[in-house]
Amino acid sequence: MKNTIIIFAIIVVVVGAGFFYGGMSYAKSKSGARNLVFGQRQGFGVAGGGILRDSTGQLRNGGNRAAGSFINGEIIAQDDKSITVKSVDGGSKIIFLAAGTQITKSVDGSITDLELGKNVMITGSANSDGSVTAQSIQLRPNILINATSTPPVR
Known about the structure:
By secondary structure, the protein is an alpha+beta fold. 27% of the residues lie in helices and 32% in strands. The N and C termini lie far apart (79 Å).
């Protein structure tokens, strides 16, 4: 009888450890996908991840960047110290322009190149209030940003 209880306890521990390991492996495999979907839902960051080079020349994994590091969208408001960028999903971010913010296009740009309706990609640091202080702003061609959108019917 004692041997049966010991064997049963060992089987329960082994099965429990197997379920624990399986659950941990499953959660680990799903966490990257969950974070990517969250980032895409917010409309900020680089959809699909990928390797990117930041403003310091360091390689970064685009899918795992903190919110606010890369922002794509359309300028919907601006003043001399900030712009507001609308993302693909309709959300928006306030972007503060620092004295050292680099604004680029095919040729060097300036604050006067930032216009309503222009698409931009911003690198910068996130502020505690959800806004971003820009390190660089790149003017982008007005192309379809959201690759999953359905093209208009003609």
